[in-house]
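Let us work through a complete example step by step.
Step 1: write down the sequence.
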Amino acid sequence: MNTYTLYQLNQAIKESLKLVIPDTIWVRAEIHNISTNYSGHCYIDLVEKSEFNDQIIAKQRATIWASTYRVLAQKFQQATNSSLQAGMKILVEVSVEFHELYGLSLNVKDIDPTYTLGELQRRRLEIIQRLKNCGLIDKNKRLPMPRLVQRIAVISSPTAAGYADFVHQLQNNSYGFAYDITLFPAIMQGTQTEESILVALDKIFHSTLHIPHSSFDIVVIIRGGGATSDLQAFDSESLAERCANFPLPIITGIGHLRDETILDLVAYLNLKTPTAVAEYLISRTLELDMELLSLGERLQKSVILRLEQEKNLLTSLSSYIPQHALRLLASSDNKLTSLQHRIELKTADFIAKNRTLLDRREEQIKVLAPNLLKTKQSQLDILQTKLQLLDPQQLLKKGYSFTTHNGKLVTSTTQLIPGDTITTTFADGTVDSVVK
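Step 2: predict the structure and record it as tokens.
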């Protein structure tokens, strides 16, 4: 049985690799991590992911030595306007090396920037198409932009020259317009750009949601200068979705003259520089101010014209009213005289008619009153006789009596029992008896 020391085994692997793998080969992979040390050497973790999901199916270390890295980094930057960074897909020429102590590694000799450009463009077009399919490209553009923009939420680096230019431009405008600017600090370059802007958007959203009186009119995302390579963060799909769905209009001023990011595409409006954004806001305010001045002048002219018309009308009325009043008084006086005459005639006629009626009623009363009195007297006499006949005392005098028990009239034997004391009333007195 043949045995190997570990060193011998690693030497055998090294020699075997030289036999089956050419001196250099081109490899497609994605940068998972990338770093440089103090000596300028670049170390990369290359990975390959499954086409069905993001699961890593292969991984390998790669090294670009400092002298090569300086050349390749410049070459890649000039071709793509970007630096090598995590998440990029690259095509590199490598030599496969196996060291007895450090194991397998790839030594990068060259890089093809056109492959990365194609991958970046493909990824960018895929994101744009997905945003279009979801109706997000124009969603923020459909929001109503306030006529007067004064409360501005700004996402920017607080130390950026572009932010300082933006604030200076607004606060020192020659028209004296006032703006309320609130900064939400964010990192505007590097790997933390996307997450930093998302956090700032969340803060603005919650501020608007929970404190209505301090809500904002618009959101401005600005970035002053910087490398074109740093614009890749603004091609983020998640950032584009958040801005497209944001409830306030978003204006961007993050690009260079020849660059347009995906964030620019979904924003309500994209301008090239922070200063251009400030000039746009000032021009909107100036347009509204001019419109208000025009309306004020039109209103003033309208008021003056109306006052003149009313003055002429009053002058006309001042001469017409006295004449009209005299005519009305004369007409009313005639009407009153006529009414007075008619009332006098009607009154005399009414009195004459009712005098005759009163005389007739008086004669009727003189004739009918004695007969009526006699009839009523006879009726009273009859009623008096009936009352006398019904008087209980008269009945008692005729031999009738009535019996009571405990103050109640007894009308039946069933009301009494043996031993009850009863009182019998006669015309000349009462008798108490006991029932046996």
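Step 3: interpret the result. The chain has a mean pLDDT of 86.
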